[in-house]
Amino acid sequence: MANFGPHTTGKQVVETFIEQVQGKTFVITGPSADSIGAETAISLAYGSPAKILLLGRDGDKIQPVADHIKIISPDTIVMPIQVSLDSLRNVREAAIQILDDDSIPKIDVLINNAGIMAAPYTLTEDNIESHFQVNHLAHFLLTNLLRPKLTSANSLRRVVNTSSYGNIFSNIPTSPTFENGQSYNPWLAYGASKTANILHAVALNSKFNNQGLKAFAVNPGSVPTNLRRYITDETMQSGMALHKQFGVTPPARKTLQEGCATALRAALDPDLSVSGGIFLDDCNVTTDGKVVAGYALDVANAERCWELSERLVGQSIQQ
């Protein structure tokens, strides 16, 4: 087995587990050019997958990634699908499009990668704070809607949620609107959504492991992408103050290739067992409190998050 670490690249992971990529179908959210999602998809192309579904808001930003994949792997079918995660209605429409497409009999791996960070206070059309919906709730709904194809015969049955060490800053919110903005802090809102990403993985394993489903959450590290577009001098200062408060040193920067590697190991390594841990950092399973809070791995907290999420999407998820 390869010795994975902080400088492992996505291509190295794909090369190591190439049999888990060849002929498989992958769904990736947030694949705009020059993003971790895009680099994940491009890395997978080197393993000759059957299909890659690219789910993103802006088709013009997805198309260059689709074109790049086809250059690397001409036989791979690339399917850009437009979806706005700040609309649960739109998420349902995208899921139905995938479920109704007979050319997609199964989904081997779903990588819930899309997200926002440190954004100004905004409510979505569903009256939910934007971080919690875009980063968590939309993916919660998408995952559960796609589950029939994720758990179909001969599927890898893997779900990977892109989280962050920011989960240590906040548990899930008691109010999905942050008391109409009165208790809003952009970093705490981001942290709460990243905690929810991990709790979602915990709950998926608890509820659907008997169907062969495995779910993991990952910290990609600090990667210079458009995720930082909302950061101002003021939010940067408040973010540094939060790091100091929690005794956390900001991590060293990673390249896009290094940033996508952890999610790819979580997606592809057949020897990863959820009983051995579901959170990965620097391409390895960890429970280090500096990158993952205890409450983010707590089964009872995961059930609370699941029930809150069901209520917010207005749909009970059947096991």
From TrEMBL:
Transmembrane region(s): none
Coiled-coil annotated spans: none
Keywords for this protein: NADP, Oxidoreductase
Protein name in UniProt: Short-chain dehydrogenase
Record carries keyword Nucleotidyltransferase: no
MF-aspect GO terms: oxidoreductase activity
UniProt record similarity statement: Belongs to the short-chain dehydrogenases/reductases (SDR) family.
Species this protein is from: Knufia fluminis
InterPro entries, alphabetized: NAD(P)-bd_dom_sf, SDR_fam
